[in-house]
Structures are given as structure tokens and as C-alpha cells.
Write a structure and sequence with these properties.
The chain has 122 residues and is α+β, with helices and mostly antiparallel strands. The protein is built from four helices and eight strands; from the N terminus they run ββαβαβααββββ. The chain starts with a strand and ends with a strand.
Length: 122
């Protein structure tokens, strides 16, 4: 849950991070394993460099550089708000960010779920 002030009122969004969400947030591609299996293998210490590849557009490196911040975003977030997709093809609804990275969320049933990680360019 992220609690924030909006128009001098306390507001919040409830979030859930399910096993299927973590693979996309890392920015890596895997060979022959799905997102939930990736999560289980992470917890069991059964990941090997041979099952990974990087995206050619550079997003893997960008996401991995801010992953430690994103893992602590519940402690270090500085802003939360609705996302406005002006001049962007990013499809997300809420943005929670620090000074250098942000995590995007979309509404899925009764919770917001993470759908993107971005490096903020200053």
C-alpha cells in the first residue's frame, strides 16, 4: 500500500506483486521458462546465466541499474500520481517514483499491479 497526500487529503493505492510480475521488471529475457517459474527459481537459488539474454534496445541494462531502488520503493518513494501518456507509448496508470527511477502500475481487479520500471533521465 502506498499512502500519499492528494489535494490536502490522505489517499492510498493498494498494490500486489505476484510471482508473474517480477520477470518483466528485471528486463531480462529467459529461455524456456515462464515468469512464475522464474520467480520460483529465484527464491530457490536455481537461476543460471545460461537461461538469460538481454534485450537489444538497452532496456535490460537500464532496469537492472535501478532494480535495487525499485526493490525498496516502498521506503524511498518521493512521488505518486496518475500517469499522463502525453508523447509516450507507455501504457500504465499510476507512477510511484524516486529521484532516479519509477515503477508503473495498472489496475487489475481490486489492486494495482506493477507493469513497468523506468529510469528517470534528468
Amino acid at each position: 500500500m502506498f499512502i500519499h497526500s492528494e489535494n490536502n487529503k490522505i489517499n492510498f493505492i493498494e498494490t500486489v506483486f505476484l510471482p508473474r510480475h517480477f520477470l518483466h521488471l528485471t528486463g531480462v529475457k529467459t529461455l524456456n521458462i515462464g515468469s512464475s517459474d522464474f520467480y520460483r527459481r529465484c527464491l530457490d537459488g536455481q537461476l543460471s546465466p545460461s537461461i538469460f539474454s538481454l534485450y537489444e534496445n538497452g532496456t535490460t541494462e537500464m532496469k537492472l541499474t535501478v532494480l535495487p531502488q525499485i526493490m525498496n520503493i516502498h521506503k524511498v518513494a518521493r512521488m505518486l500520481g496518475d500517469y499522463s501518456p502525453i508523447k509516450s507509448v507507455l501504457m500504465t496508470e499510476k507512477i510511484v517514483d524516486t529521484v532516479t527511477a519509477c515503477l508503473g502500475f495498472v489496475y487489475d481487479n481490486k489492486y494495482y499491479v506493477p507493469n513497468t520500471v523506468l529510469v528517470l533521465q534528468l
